[in-house]
């Protein structure tokens, strides 16, 4: 081990090649870890929720009571485990990875990987309404951080290994290597810099190779046999646009509900074990009350229901002939656990056709087993089953995490999007069938739209849904809905579901940068106090001369005879005049200045100033003191100076 820690990185190979090699090892380790993690979830679920659900037919009251209590027991154990050994393992995990990258040079404690795996497996297995992608991303990132620290790599290379572990986590969870790379760059690093791509790609690919060999999905996509056609005629566009708007609002509602429930529960139940117990029982009770099978089922689901009712057992792959391996369990309660069964059901919803095999349909035996065919007379029944799931899933996930649970929010976002899209598709078919397609089509598109709205990762959402369904035909409709949902969500709340948690904690992070380092630096510390000004009557030639003499100042202030700021002239204002047919001799500073420009106060900190830069998209902000008629220009704040100060603060920390 001493040779590995010292000789290998310093004498055998360069740090760059070592980083790539370690990224490969992390990818393999994350792939195997994801397979083990999934197996742990299934094993715990079989012992708890599935075992209770087995008794539903014979003794529904006993089964309901057990399902009510099991999530509470799981939450209490998980809360204790995280509180005692690794508090950062609680919650959905990805905000902690973002914080480690932006603020701690990628350093994550090694025990996080172990505690996160155990606590999340227990939480999901006992019915916690969360996903497994967040835990696997955090586990992969912790492995990357540990490897980087073990080999004494630079902060930059440690960050790359953390991002590589995160990409491997997404790749291994969803059988989506390309989405893993984009997710890591778009969400974790906040950068698509080419020098960071190689380790991330290597880890993502090798994690997916392991998943294809021993993982849950093998070489198949996560959701198989999505055989819909996706019409691209303009008449079908309006429903997609409406769905994008609705999905954006739904995504923001989920984000706000998640943290509102957490805040209220902390206020009402300061004790961690009381909070876990009460919220856990609430999760279990809602799960037990909604433990209802869908009114329309695929042949595959119907066969499972029948086998579970008969107490059938099936052998595992490779088992000896006649060897009894495990019992076929009933369909789990739709609101407990990750909910992949409900997502799969929603994605395969299609309306009954007059001819069983209409033109263009795919005559595939396996695909037909997955189809959930809904007669038009049954659409209201399906709608009434799905609608409570759309409303209650955000609440269930919020209660689970507020109770101290550990698990991701990516799978709940997929669930909300799929059920929302299915409900929307059923409504469109009821209201305007001429402009509608199968509900499953809207479920697929809605799934990507809600993910884009919650994460603000539009590219990640598009690619992950594409790779999970292996259907290229979804690209056009999902691009328009995901893009629109992300835009709407960003307009309502600029924070994604990951950054919202950091903002509420008072941590100012944006796209991998720790803006918190600027909250103690004031505008007066950075502004320039000597600057040129332009009189109201300055002509274009005067403006050009002053601009050339002061190339570092992007916007020039225009002052009236009394010394008050009237406006600023930006390069775009000057170019607009020079590119026009108007004679420069006929134009003065007053004519082209941006009136009443946004200004800042010397007492503001640089975080507030950066927001002002973004509001007007300028490179220079006037600095004024006083109010109303007493306002006076005392300086200029340059965006380049703010960024230089940020770099100084980062270097000073090291």
Task: Give the helices and strands, then pairings.
Blueprint (H helix, E strand, L loop, with lengths): L1 H11 L2 H33 L1 H5 L6 H26 L8 H10 L7 H15 L7 H18 L4 H20 L2 H13 L7 H18 L22 H32 L3 H18 L9 H12 L2 E2 L11 E2 L12 H8 L1 E3 L13 H6 L1 E3 L4 H24 L7 H22 L7 H17 L2 H12 L5 H18 L4 H8 L4 E2 L2 E2 L8 H4 L7 E2 L4 H10 L6 E4 L5 E5 L1 H8 L10 H4 L1 E2 L10 H11 L3 E6 L6 E7 H15 L1
Parallel strand pairs: 3-4, 7-8
Antiparallel strand pairs: 1-2, 5-6, 8-9, 9-10, 11-12
Helix pairs in contact: 2-6, 2-7, 2-8, 2-10, 4-6, 4-12, 5-21, 6-7, 7-8, 8-9, 8-10, 9-10, 9-19, 11-16, 11-17, 11-18, 11-20, 12-16, 14-17, 16-17, 17-18, 18-19, 18-20, 19-20
CATH-derived architecture of the largest domain:
Orthogonal Bundle
- Average per-residue pLDDT, rounded, comes to 83
Largest sheet: 4 strands, mixed
Helix content: 55-70%
Report the span from N to C terminus: 28 Å
Tally of helical segments: 27
> How many discrete domains?
3
Strand order of the largest sheet: 7-8-9-10
What is the alpha-carbon Rg in Å? Answer: 28 Å
Q: Shape, please?
A: globular
Task: Bin the strand percentage.
Answer: 5-15%
């Amino acid at each position: 081990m001493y040779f590995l820690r010292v000789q290998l990185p310093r004498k055998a190979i360069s740090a760059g090649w070592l980083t790539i090699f370690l990224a490969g090892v992390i990818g393999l380790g994350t792939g195997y870890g994801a397979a083990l993690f999934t197996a742990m979830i299934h094993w715990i679920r079989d012992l708890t929720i599935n075992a209770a659900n087995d008794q539903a037919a014979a003794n529904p009251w006993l089964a309901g009571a057990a399902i009510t209590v099991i999530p509470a027991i799981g939450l209490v154990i998980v809360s204790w485990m995280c509180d005692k050994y690794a508090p950062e393992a609680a919650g959905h995990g990805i905000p902690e990875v973002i914080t480690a990258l932006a603020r701690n040079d990628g350093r994550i404690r090694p025990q996080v990987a172990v505690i996160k795996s155990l606590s999340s497996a227990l939480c999901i297995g006992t019915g916690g309404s969360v996903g497994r992608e967040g835990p696997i991303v955090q586990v992969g990132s912790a492995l990357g951080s540990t490897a980087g620290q073990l080999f004494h790599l630079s902060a930059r290379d440690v960050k790359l290994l953390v991002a590589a572990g995160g990409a491997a986590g997404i790749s291994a969870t969803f059988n989506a290597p390309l989405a893993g790379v984009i997710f890591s760059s778009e969400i974790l690093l906040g950068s698509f810099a080419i020098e960071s791509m190689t380790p991330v790609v290597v880890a993502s690919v090798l994690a997916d190779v392991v998943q294809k060999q021993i993982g849950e999905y093998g070489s198949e996509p996560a959701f198989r046999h999505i055989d819909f056609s996706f019409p691209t005629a303009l008449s079908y566009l309006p429903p997609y646009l409406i769905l994008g708007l609705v999905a954006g609002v739904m995504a923001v509602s989920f984000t706000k509900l998640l943290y509102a429930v957490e805040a209220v529960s902390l206020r009402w139940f300061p004790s961690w074990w009381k909070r876990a117990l009460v919220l856990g029982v609430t999760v279990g009770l809602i799960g037990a009350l909604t433990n209802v099978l869908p009114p329309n089922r695929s042949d595959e689901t119907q066969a499972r229901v029948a086998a579970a009712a008969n107490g059938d057992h099936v052998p595992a792959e490779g088992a000896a002939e006649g060897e009894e391996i495990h019992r076929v369990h009933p369909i789990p309660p739709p609101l407990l656990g990750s909910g992949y069964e409900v997502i799969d059901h929603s994605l395969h919803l299609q309306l009954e056709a007059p001819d069983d095999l209409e033109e263009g349909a795919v005559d595939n035996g396996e695909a037909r087993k997955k189809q959930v065919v809904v007669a038009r007379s049954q659409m209201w029944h399906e709608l009434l089953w799905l609608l409570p799931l759309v409303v209650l899933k955000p609440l269930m996930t919020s209660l689970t995490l507020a109770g101290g649970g550990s698990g991701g929010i990516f799978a709940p976002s997929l669930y909300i999007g799929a059920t929302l899209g299915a409900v929307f598709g059923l409504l469109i078919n009821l209201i305007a069938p001429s402009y509608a397609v199968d509900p499953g089509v809207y479920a697929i598109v809605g799934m990507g739209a809600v993910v884009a709205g919650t994460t603000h990762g539009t590219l990640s959402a598009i690619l992950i849904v594409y790779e999970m369904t292996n259907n290229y035909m979804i690209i056009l409709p999902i691009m328009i809905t995901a893009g629109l949902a992300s835009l709407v969500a960003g307009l309502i709340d600029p924070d994604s579901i990951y950054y919202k948690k950091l903002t509420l904690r008072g941590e100012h992070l944006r796209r991998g940068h720790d803006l918190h380092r600027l909250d103690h630096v004031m505008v007066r510390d950075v502004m320039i106090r000597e600057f040129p000004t332009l009189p109201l009557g300055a002509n274009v030639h005067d403006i050009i001369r002053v601009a050339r003499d002061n190339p570092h100042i992007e916007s020039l202030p225009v002052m009236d005879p009394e010394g008050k700021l009237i406006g600023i002239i930006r390069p775009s204002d000057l170019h607009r005049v020079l590119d026009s047919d108007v004679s420069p001799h006929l134009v003065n500073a007053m004519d082209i200045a941006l009136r009443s420009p946004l200004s800042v106060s010397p007492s503001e900190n640089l975080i507030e100033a950066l927001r002002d830069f973004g509001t007007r998209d300028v490179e220079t902000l006037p600095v004024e003191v006083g109010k109303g008629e007493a306002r006076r220009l005392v300086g200029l704040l340059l965006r380049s100076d703010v960024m230089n100060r940020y770099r100084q603060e980062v270097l000073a920390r090291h």
